[in-house]
Specification:
The chain contains 1 helix and 14 strands. By secondary structure, the protein is mostly beta strands. The strands form 3 sheets. The protein has a 5-stranded mixed beta sheet, with no helix packed on it. Strands 4-6-11-8-9 form a 5-stranded mixed beta sheet, with no helix packed on it.
């Protein structure tokens, strides 16, 4: 039996068990997806989770390069918090700096200015829905850089109120629901 959708905030479902099965498939399939990994670059991404490392453009593998100036921004619609967990951080003290901003650009409030070797690595929380990383290195010494993971906390939306607007006669081949908000 097909699934039938109607407009005006109504949803008609022909086979309810099919919807439940599809929801189970969707939930189980999302758990096998790997988080995206980025190297430091000028970019804007909207991923709910990911990994960001230094550029790895340095003279040795795993190092950032001299004279870098990159801005990397993560913005996620509906995010209450973006949690940034550094796995390690090491740069040339004072001269190579990663500044982290709680917002979509470098005009936002500063969360942290990271330089040198930091132990234990920091955990930061951005609450604006965006976090911006600005890295600047000088022309002298380079280091191992950093490796961080970010994840997002999003409040679950308020579930819609559901009401049955058709008469329930048994046996039935369809049932019509009405929601108090539009269904997209």
């Amino acid at each position: 039996m097909p699934i039938r959708f109607t407009y005006n905030h109504h949803l008609t479902v022909r086979v309810i068990s099919f919807l439940v099965l599809c929801n189970v498939c969707l939930f189980s399939s999302t758990s096998i997806l790997a988080q995206p990994t980025y190297v430091m670059q000028n970019a804007l991404v909207e991923d709910c989770e990911g990994k960001l490392t230094d550029s790895d453009n340095g003279p040795e593998t795993g190092q950032y390069n001299h004279n870098e100036d990159y801005i990397f921004t993560v913005c996620v619609d509906g995010a209450n918090e973006i949690i940034i967990a550094f796995n390690f951080f090491s740069s040339e003290e004072t001269y190579d700096v990663l500044t982290v901003y709680d917002g979509p650009n470098t005009s936002a409030p500063v969360l942290a200015m990271l330089t040198g070797s930091i132990q234990p690595p920091p955990v930061l929380i951005a609450t604006s829905g965006c976090v911006t990383f600005h890295f600047v290195s000088d022309d002298n010494i380079v280091a191992a850089g950093w490796d961080l993971d970010w994840s997002v906390e999003i409040d679950e939306p308020v579930p819609p109120q559901l009401s049955v607007i058709s008469v329930l006669d048994c046996p039935m081949d369809a049932i019509t629901f009405q929601f108090n908000i539009p269904v997209d």
